[in-house]
Amino acid sequence: LGLLLLKSQLNVFHLGAGAWLPMSQLLPTLSITALTASLAKILPKHLPNFPTALLAISFSTIVAQVFSLPLQFLDFQSAVSTASATTTTMSSGVPSFVSLGLRQVSTNSWTTLVLPTAFSIAIISILETLLTAKVMDDDNEGVSDKVKDASCRSMGYGKLCSSMLGGFGGCGLIPNTLLNQQAGGKTSTSVLIYATVMGAAVLAGRNLLTRIPLAALAGVMITVGAQTMRLGESWKLLLSRKNNKAPLAKKLALLITTYLCFQVDMGTGILVGVASDLLLSAASKK
After folding, report:
1. What is the pTM of this model?
2. Cys bridge to 56: 39, 65, 188, 206, which one at CB 3.0-4.6 A?
3. CB under 8 Å to 129, separation ≥6 — which residues?
4. What is the pLDDT of residue 6?
């Protein structure tokens, strides 16, 4: 996942067809990315339990605006999201209920398109959310199963409300969660405040948000990707010769998961990786 995060940030340095930005744009983009990444890495040491990522993005945005740097900003039509590499636009105003048009959906479409798609998205969303909880388990005292169940149910309710307002669903995301954790957000209250502030910012602060350089967001995501990778632990796992600590099944599962995440998609990589880990572990015990 850490490698995928780093790879997705390369979109900031490319044009639509995959070509690199012209040098007049590439150098300022690299500079702002490096500046934001450096601040996001250094500031937490001096300002613990403070949203240093927000501070780093704010400072880089001010620098970009003061010097009128030729960068790509969030106000681009069809701007590319640095976190998920999906095409998106930012609109303003209070959302209203929309007609889902369910009556126009044929029976054949329900069975061949709607239900399979909904089921696939639900599975991937739950996997990603539980994977996020696993990362939190590794970094903290642990997250109880009761809290995980409540989170999954709440996520479902939120998706239902979002679709009724013309929005799209979401799930637990490791990069966002790590950033929130670094800023001291570790409780249900912080989740509520995060959602409230996010909604208020989109509704009331759109003009400010759209001036944020994509390079600044990429700089923060690079630090998150580097933190998520944990190269030291993975390297020790692959090189360890003690079967009781790192059986061959675990090494193969890690390699299979990594390969499929890059060559296919993350959902497939995780599903096949978990299945291969269980099968290989069971076979090694025989």
Report:
1. 0.73
2. 39
3. 148, 151, 152, 155, 171, 172
4. 86
